[in-house]
Amino acid sequence: MAATVVDHPVVQDRLTRLRHVDTDRSRFRHALHEVARLVVYESLRDLPVTPITVPTPLTEAQGATVTEPPMLVPILRAGLGMLDAALELVPDARVGFVGLRRDEQTLRSEWYLDTVPADLDGAAALVLDPMLATGGSMIQTCRRLRDAGAGSIVAACILAAPEGVAAVEAAALDVAIHTAAVDPGLNEVGFIVPGLGDAGDRLFGTA
Ligand code: PRP
User: Fold this and answer.
1) pTM reported for the whole predicted model
2) Nearest alpha carbon to residue 72 among 11, 134, 129
3) Residues lining ligand 1, Cβ inside 6 A
């Protein structure tokens, strides 16, 4: 399966809090922030660094610095819940917002916002979306990024369904998916099961 599962006890602990139906909005936001930070951390493992020499109190040390952070691309709304955590790790990153709303009947995602630059000129992109269900939103976003000339594209998710992972793979957009878990599948209305419900609604109180 073309998804890297960030399998770590702390990730599983926070993910369990997210799943719990009684986790209130404040705790949901906090747990999402925490698990996003860990998944994004792993998603950035292949980030290029520039070698530098720095003075220490004793002598000089060879070090490395991140000079080309990826463009962060949160898919609204739920992806906003991962943005601050990603910015903690790559504070200089540019941010391009994608607004996609999934029609609950057709499960097709429709655009309502797009602030990704028209020309990415080979820049890397990191897409943020807690939920990879059918994969429609992720595929549309990554197609947009490919059309803009993105370099590497990595997706950081919290929960994925096998159907979504397979769909992204079949779209042949060369996207590396990182997620905290891959659940058994989708139900008849396209929700990840057992899942955590609707991440956007739980984050913003619109259930
Ligand atoms: C949900 C979720 C993903 C998308 C996943 O967003 O946050 O963005 O659906 O589904 P897919 O893989 O089948 O495309 P939704 O459209 O409900 O918008 P929201 O984040 O504003 O709640």
Assistant:
1) 0.97
2) 129
3) 75-78, 101-102, 107, 109, 129-138, 164, 190, 198-201
